[in-house]
Structures are given as C-alpha cells and as structure tokens.
Amino acid sequence: MNEQIKIDTRYETNRQKILDEAYRIVLHQGIDQLSMRSIATAVKSSPANLYEYFTSKDEIVFELHVKLLDDLANHLRTVETQLAPDEYLEQLGIAYLDFAQSHSALFKLYGHYNVEANTTTKMFPYRGEENGHHATPPTHPLFEILHNAIQRQFAVNEEWVGAARPTAYEKTMAFWALIHGYATLMWLAVRPDYSVTTWRRLFRQFFVAV
Length: 210
Prior knowledge:
The chain is an all-alpha fold and 210 residues long. The chain is built from 10 helices and no strands.
C-alpha cells in the first residue's frame, strides 16, 4: 500500500514538473517553441519518456490552458466584493485586463492546436439554465465569478425587467466575450486607444444602465 502511494506521488510530481517546464517555455519563449523535445530537454529526460505522463503535446497545452483559467479566476477573486454591483463588475474587467497583460504569451494557448476538440467537456461540466431556458453555461470558477457579478447587477437594474430582458447567462457570456476580446486586442497591438480608460468607457456603454 505504502509503495503504491510512493509510486503515485512520484508520478504526480513528475507530471507537475513537466507542466511547470512547459509553462515556462510558453511564458518566456512563446507557444511556437513548445514541443515534446523542448520540454524533455527542460526536464532532463527524453521525448519518449514524456508519453508516460501525457498522450500528446496537445494534452499538455490543454492542461496549461486549464491552469491559466484557474489562475485568472484566482486573480479576479482579489477584487473587493463589497463594491457596488456596477463598480465591482467594472473592476473585474480591469483585473482581467491586468492579468492578460502580465500573461500575454499564455493567452495564445486558447484554441491552439485545436485542443478543445476532445476536451471541452473535461473543462466545463454543464448544467441547465435558469428561467426555463435550455442553454448550458460552463461551470468553471471563472464563469461563476462573472456570472455572480452579473446577477448582482441584475438585482439593482429594475429597468431590465420585461420580455426583452436578457438572461444572466446571456449577459455573462456577452461580458466575457467583450473583456476577453479587448484583452486580446491589448496584447496584439500596443496602442494608446487600447487602454484601461477606453475599457471603462466601453464597459459603461454596454453594461451600465444609463
């Protein structure tokens, strides 16, 4: 029994070491420099040995992408939750942009090598939508943070009540799409018009009831 525990622990330790080195390669050299050979060199092993821990480079990229989302969720949790709903949501966006700027190389992982083709359900278990809708929102902690913030905003914006009112899920996905798209623009092109000030203006235009 103890021997099996040691084997399992050693396996997980080696697996994590591989992921850590892959993370460093992407962060410091870029996604294009990530290969089984470059990872093997970093961990002082052979490419063939890596296949004892991962089925392919795509699986490693997927695991790094999951780590990126987890780290981003943790960063958003540092935003003060006692802020007014609109201000809290705006500050979540600013925190998202801050994280994207400091992890710009890692943002290129999303969709790289078509990682999601066979792994989407691993990352996002699904559930039913509220209010009788059949949409199935992802339940990753990052989504939950944004979704909870949107629900708080709904509670204080009574003018959204009515047949045309979007669901919290729809509003959350629109917000996530806007902030992630803006973060992408910020690391693709360093320009003064892609700034936190501009983000505030966009946020207030699309997400704060006037």
